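Title: Comparing notes on inverse folding

I've been comparing how different people in this forum approach sequence design from structure. To keep things fair, I'm posting one structure and asking everyone to reply with a full sequence. Here's the target:
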């Protein structure tokens, strides 16, 4: 930008504005010589935040 600030999309790329959430469910299959039973385990949740650090720009300022 002419004022030296980064464009909005670049700011969001370098510091994603929301948390990334991944939820995983697993199943135990219990089979003791009879009809199998399913036991749900979870959710196991991972919460992450994406932030890029130590960015180096090209001399013309067009590439990271």
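Reply #1:
Here's my take.
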């Amino acid at each position: 930008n002419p004022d030296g600030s980064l464009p909005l999309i670049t700011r969001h790329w370098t510091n994603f504005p929301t948390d990334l959430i991944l939820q995983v469910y697993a199943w135990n299959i219990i089979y003791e010589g009879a009809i199998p039973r399913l036991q749900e385990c979870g959710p196991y949740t991972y919460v992450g935040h994406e932030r890029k650090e130590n960015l180096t720009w090209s001399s013309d300022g067009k590439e990271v």
